[in-house]
Amino acid sequence: MTRRVPRAAVVGLGSCLPARSVDNEEVIAEGGLDSSDEWIRRRTGIHRRRRAAPGTATGDLAVYAAAAAIESAAIRDLFARTPPSVTSAKGALGHTMGAAGAIEAALTVCTLRTGTVPPTANHDAPGPDTAGIDLVTGAPRRHAPRLALSHSIGFGGHNTVLALRR
Fold first, then answer.
1. Which of 10, 17, 56, 4 is nearest to 163 (CA)?
2. Of 65, 80, 87, which Cα lies nearest the Cα of 158?
3. Does the predicted TM-score (pTM) go above 0.70?
4. Which bin fits 112, alpha (ψ -120 to 50), beta or left (φ > 0)?
5. First-to-last CA distance in the chain?
6. DSSP label at 6?
């Protein structure tokens, strides 16, 4: 029997959900929709959803999730010394619905295994909002990180971050 060597290990996890939970009737009333709770439930199975409070940026929720993952992996000091390279697969893949988190995690594992960080597709001219961030654009970059974060954002502000180690 051959033993398989793991490709990567999950060494930390963080998640953040908006505190506010709303039902279908509230969504219908706020959106002025011509629908009903029964119609939504029958077609989607959705009864309630979480929603960020007014004035809460999705980015804030992402920071909370990432901070929890970093803390649980005890790697805060490493990222303080060496800012991580940042990339995103969405520009190349489009909207993958519920598969986005799994695909992003798999691509992060591939980055750890190959030592190549893929570029962020369709993002060639970073703006002032990305100043100071090591955003990989244009071409893949050789880099052999031992640790990586895989961040997924869902509808309504759900945020999950995995800390992965080679």
1. 10
2. 65
3. no
4. alpha
5. 24
6. P
- The pair of structure tokens assigned to 154 is 């869902």
In 3D space, the residue among 145, 143, 13 whose CA is nearest the CA of residue 79 turns out to be 145
Pick the closest to residue 108 from 40, 67, 163 (CA basis): 163
Q: DSSP state, 149? A: E
Q: How far apart are CA 24 and CA 152, in angstroms?
A: 24
Please, what's the b/e burial string for 112-147 (b: 16 or more CB within 10 A of its CB; e: otherwise)? Answer: beeeebbbbbebeeeeeeeeeeeebbeeebeeebeb
9-18+56-165 fold: Peroxisomal Thiolase; Chain A, domain 1 (3.40.47)
CA distances from 143 to 20, 110, 137 (A): 40, 12, 14
**What does the pLDDT look like over 57-98, one tens digit per residue?**
666 666 666 666 666 555 556 566 666 788 888 888 887 877
Q: How far apart are CA 13 and CA 65, in angstroms?
A: 8
Maximum alpha-carbon separation in the chain: 62
Tokens 């990305």, residue? 130
The structure tokens listed for 91 are 């520009």
Query: What angle is formed at CA 33 by the lines to CA 32 and CA 37, rounded to 5 degrees?
Result: 120
Beta carbons of 12 and 150 less than 8 angstroms apart: no
